[in-house]
Amino acid sequence: MSASAESTVRVAIIGAGPSGFYAADALLKSDRDVSVDLYDKLPTPYGLVRYGVAPDHQKIKSVIRLYERTCKDPRLRFLGNVTFGRDLTVEDIKAHYHAIIYTVGSPADRNLGIPGETLPGSMSATEFVAWYNGHPDYTDLEPDLSAQSVAVIGMGNVAVDVTRILAKSVDELRTTDIADHALEALAESQVKDIYMIGRRGPAQGKFTTKELRELGELENADIIVHPFELAVDEASLTSIEGDAIAMKNLEVLRLFAAKEPEGKARRVHLRFLFSPVEIHGNGHVNAIKLERNRLEQTESGYISAVGCDVYEELIVQLVFRSVGYRGEPLPGVPFDERRNTIPHHEGRVLERPGGDPVPGSYVAGWIKRGPTGVIGTNKADAMETVKSLLADTLPEVPTERSNPQAILDLLAFKGVRYCTLEGWQALDKIELEAGAAQGRPRVKVTALEEMLEHTGVDR
C-alpha cells in the first residue's frame, strides 16, 4: 500500500521529547489521515522537559500540558522502553511505516580537550543534570559533594542551572521534583564556592536574563563579579547592538558587581575571559589551571577568545564542563560527522551532506539543526519537517505490515518490554500522588525496573 492522499499515513517518531511531540501534533492537525507511533528508549515521555529542565523551574515544565493534549488523540500511541537500533532497526521501521522522523536530540556533551579532564571529580554538566533530575541511567553517578570549591565551565543556561542547584539550600530544593537521591546527597553538601567560568566576555554570555538574574536572588549564596572583568570592548558592543537580551545581561552583571557580599553560606563567582587549560590532581581533582584571554574579532566578524599566556590556578575539588551538546550517530542512519547532526534538506534526511534524500526518512529538533534554541524553537522546526513529509510521495508498505498491530506483534516476538501510554499514565499518577503527600510537584521513580513495574510492561 502506498501512502496516497486517500490512505492512512503511518509514521514512526523516534524520540518522545519536545521535537517528537511537536512533530506528532503537526501531523495530527494536518488534513491527512495519519497514524503516529511515538517511541522512546525510556518508559517516560517528554525527554529533556523531564530530565533536563531544572527542578526549581516548574513553570517551564508546564509545557507538558500541551503534550498531554496531543496524547489524547486516539491516532497517537506512545511506545516507551524501546531502544532504536537494538529493539527496533531501521529495516523494522521501514517495513511497517510509510515514514520515520528522528527526533533524538543531542544527548552527548562536548569535551574540553585538556589534560586531566578524565580525573575523578571531573564530569559533564549533562551527567549531573540527569542525576539530579532522576534519569534512571545516572542514579549511581555519586558526584563528590564533599568538595568545598567547584568550577562550572561554561556560560549558558545549563551552567547557570548547575550553579544554582549547587548554591541553593536543601530546604529550597525540598519543594521541587528533584530526585530523592540527589536531595539526600545535596543535604550533606560541603560546597562553599562555585566558580562559573567563561572563555569570552560578558557580552558573549549565552544565558537568558531571567536565568542570570536568579543567581543574584539566591537566599543561600552571595553573587560575586569583578568589575574589571565586565569591561566590554567596542567590537563586542557593536556585535550586540539591538540584542535586548545581551544588553539586559550586561546591566544585570553590573548590578551584581556593585553588590556587597552579605556573608551568606555560599558564594557564586562569575569569571569572564578565562579558558581552562589543565585540570590538576593526584587521583582526584584538586585544582584547575586557567589562562587569561583577550577578545579579537575575526574577518568574519566572530569575536574570538585568544590566550594571553597569563595563568591562574584555582583550587577546586570538582569540575563540571558545560560547553555544549552534540548529536550521536544512530545505527543505519546517515550522519554528518562535522556538524554532529543528521544531514537534511528542509527536514528530509539526505544520504550524505549535500546528497540525495532518503525516501520516507525525516529529522527534527537538535539532531537536525544542532543544539540551539529553547523548547519552543522546536515547534517551527518540526512543522517544517512535517510539511516536507506530507508533500512527498512516500514508500509503499504491505497492507498486513501497515496494520498498527503488526509492529506490536514484532516487539512481542523480540521480547521487548514496551511501555504504552496507559502504562506511563499509571506511573505518572503514582509520582504525582507521592508528591502531593509531601507538598511537592511529584516524587520521581528513578529505578528502571521499578518504573517498568508501575507501567505494567509484564502484562
What does this structure look like?
The chain has helices spanning 18-28, 48-51, 58-61, 64-71, 90-96, 125-132, 157-167, 170-173, 180-187, 209-215, 234-239, 244-258, 366-369, 377-391, 399-402, 404-413, 421-438, 448-455, and strands at residues 9-14, 34-39, 76-79, 99-102, 108-109, 122-124, 149-153, 193-197, 221-225, 266-271, 274-281, 285-297, 303-314, 318-321, 325-326, 344-345, 348-350, 357-363. It is α/β, with parallel strands linked by helices. The protein folds into two domains: 9-107 and 327-418, 3-Layer(aba) Sandwich (Rossmann fold); 110-319, FAD/NAD(P)-binding domain. The strands form four sheets. Strands 3-2-1-4-18-17-16 form a seven-stranded mixed beta sheet, sandwiched between helices. A six-stranded parallel beta sheet has the order 6-14-7-8-10-9. The chain has a three-stranded antiparallel beta sheet with strand order 11-12-13, with no helix packed on it. The two termini are 32 Å apart.
What keyword list fits this structure?
459 residues; alpha/beta; Rossmann fold; FAD/NAD(P)-binding domain; 7-stranded mixed beta sheet; 6-stranded parallel beta sheet; 18 strands
Helix content: 25-40%
Level-1 CATH class name of the largest domain: Alpha Beta
Number of helices, counting only DSSP H or I runs of 4 residues or more: 18
Biggest sheet strand order reads 3-2-1-4-18-17-16
Give the CATH architecture of the largest domain.
3-Layer(bba) Sandwich
Output the radius of gyration.
Answer: 24 Å
Mean of residue pLDDT values: 95
Number of domains: 2
How many β-strand runs?
A: 18
- Look up the CATH topology of the largest domain: FAD/NAD(P)-binding domain
Helix-strand category: alpha/beta
Which stretches are low in confidence, meaning pLDDT under 50 for 5 or more residues running? none
Q: The biggest beta sheet, please?
A: 7 strands, mixed
Question: Could you tell me how far the N terminus lies from the C terminus, measured between alpha carbons in angstroms?
Answer: 32 Å
Strand content: 15-25%
Q: Could you say which overall geometry the principal axes of the C-alpha atoms support?
A: globular
CATH superfamily of the largest domain: FAD/NAD(P)-binding domain
